[in-house]
User: Fold these one by one.
Assistant:
Number 1:
Amino acid sequence: MKKLLLSLFLLLSPLMADGMYKLTLNQKSSVVYPKLLDALDAHYLIVVSQIDILDKFKHAGLPKKFGKNFNTNNLTAIKAVIACNGGFGNAIANTDPYMMGLCPVRITLIEKEGKTTILFVKPSQVAAGSKALEVIKKLEAKVIASLEALK
């Protein structure tokens, strides 16, 4: 059984790794974040929501609740941006409305030791077999192009 699970893990590992876009920049999130918002705007992606997750956790009393188990990786920022493009959103809704769970997209920033990592789950990994896959791939490419512009 262990060999079967190990084989399955090794088989799926490349797929899981490919499902996440990750970009690490040698800058604090306070520098990267406004650049990210500008890059999204330049690529016609509308930011519909911004969330300072670490701040929300602190205000919810999680440091006290979890004590020494709170933020054990010592992240100094955790933020999320939710963005969409109306054209892509409309096309996805028209083609396969159940894929609207993938649009808008979420981009997460984490900061540790003065470096910011941007994380983006690629929606095309979930949309396999959907009639909206081609539109979702185009949306994904637009998001990644905006993130690549930060390099």
Note: The beta strands are 20-25, 46-52, 77-84, 105-112, 115-121.
Number 2:
Amino acid sequence: MPIPTPEPGLVISYAYLWHHEHEAGREEGRKDRPSVIVLAVERPANDTTVVVVLPITHAAPADPAGAVEIPAAVKRQLGLDDERCWIVVAEGNEFDWPGYDIRKIGRSDRHDYGFLPPRFFKQVIVAFIAWHRARKVKLTSRE
């Protein structure tokens, strides 16, 4: 199956590089994890699309405003496990699509889990914007 078109709300399998890992000198993410595309901007001048992804994690956030918990129904729709998990809005990765860090999901030919429902995706975007306005979102460039 080909790599999908990058669209906001799409959850992809991605080798996410945490900001603290980047600051420690790492260039590759430790593991592949579901990550949500929140921004996809086409740049016709150099025929690229820049995307920003937010990671999904089982780790509860230290600051509740820094993440949005994913409801059980949404996890089921995406095929994620039953453990509690959050979309982190306090940091993200930015890269030119498709980049080197998009991964297949397990042994499947798919690179994506599907889309977040629009109403829930709006909650994620609102939280991301609020965090960005109150504090500086830590965006790690993966170019």
Note: The helical segments are 19-23, 72-78, 118-134.
